[in-house]
């Protein structure tokens, strides 16, 4: 027989240890003790986007694509944010890609993408690309 207990209000991404003790409800005798039961909570925030890829590079633009995170968290993903060269996060063009335009030619750039939820941003993925020479 499998029994399940749901704990609510505990901290995300923390390892908890439990001991299970069985007792006969009609007496005060202990039937057994099972030490060493552990559980790790999941983060309510989503993980990083998967398969972040540079799809196209021109002299002044870079197009990225990605897939949704494997771990979606407990909040719905409401969109994605992108960042270039460690700058501010801005809204992505779509839920699966973004094109950065107006970039200087023949220059290295670092890109980051992260999912966004009502509870906050998830983890980011990163990649880099060099715009083409004219």
CATH homologous superfamily grouping of the domain at 50-130: Immunoglobulins
Task: Return the string of H and E elements.
Answer: EEEEEEEEEE
Largest β sheet strand count, sense and barrel closure: 5 strands, antiparallel
What general outline do the C-alpha atoms trace?
A: elongated
CA-atom Rg in angstroms? 23 Å
Please tell me about this protein's structure.
With 134 residues, the chain is mainly beta. The chain has a domain at 50-130: Immunoglobulins (Immunoglobulin-like), CATH 2.60.40.10. Helix content is 0%, strand content 49%. The protein has strands at 15-23, 30-40, 50-57, 62-67, 77-84, 90-91, 97-100, 108-117, 120-121, 125-130. The strands form three sheets. Strands 5, 6, 8, 9 and 10 form a five-stranded antiparallel β-sheet that branches. Strands 3-4-7 form a three-stranded antiparallel β-sheet, with no helix packed on it. A hairpin with a 6-residue loop joins strand 1 (15-23) and strand 2. The protein is elongated and about 85 Å long. The N and C termini lie far apart (70 Å). The mean pLDDT is 81.
